[in-house]
Write a structure and sequence with these properties.
Oligomer: single chain
Radius of gyration: 49 Å
Helix content: 40-55%
CATH topology of the largest domain: Protein Transport Mog1p, Chain A
Order of helices and strands: HHHEEHEEEHEEEEH
CATH class of the largest domain: Alpha Beta
Low-confidence stretches: 87-91, 101-108
Number of domains: 2
Shape: rod-shaped
Number of strands: 9
Strand content: 15-25%
CATH architecture of the largest domain: 3-Layer(aba) Sandwich
Amino acid sequence: MRVFSYTLTALVTIFVINIALSFLLPTYRNTLINIRTSIYPPLDATPQANKAEIGNIDNTRLVESLDRIDKHITSLTEASQTNLKPITTSGTILDATGVISPEIDIIPKEIDIPLSGIFLAKIMPEVTLKKVENDGFFGIKIMGDIQYNTYVDERRKIKIYAFQETYNAFLLNMKLTRSVYVLNETDQFFGYTFFLNPLKKDPKDTIIRFVTSLEGRAIGVEVPTNYYLTFKKMLLKNK
């Protein structure tokens, strides 16, 4: 009985010492935890079968999410291709399927600028004009926003340019072409007028060029030298 009492006292003493050391020494406490873990390994609360099932569910959700993202990107791409339609040179557009569809006013159209009635009354019927496609005026390719129409008498080799601008505004623009022509202004011809004389004289150039003012707008003329005096008399009659 006494032996049992000594043994129990020793065990209690060791137990108390272990508790005290575990609180005082973190290293000692960790050692005890590791010993316990090695003897009694923790049980996995999730069975292997359930783990596999959960993993499969997560993978399925991930694949579905990726599919939705891919479909969304595809729809955005198709929408952008539909909205950005390439313009063709004929004024039509190509839709997403490549089919040509008519489009109104995609390319700015040439506006209609009729010639002055006073001007026409003076030169007709001796000079008969028809409207042709614009191809620059006075041999100048203008990149600005100068609106005009071109009329020709093919038989007499006369070109008439009906400008949308006023005479003064057009004169100001033409002063930028001094590298091509010398501008000679006069008020003794037919209203306000200026002549365009080439800087470099060419014997083969037999055209007289001038711009005059009628009914608030500028009118440009190219007339062969051999017909200039006749044309001038037409304009000056009943001045």
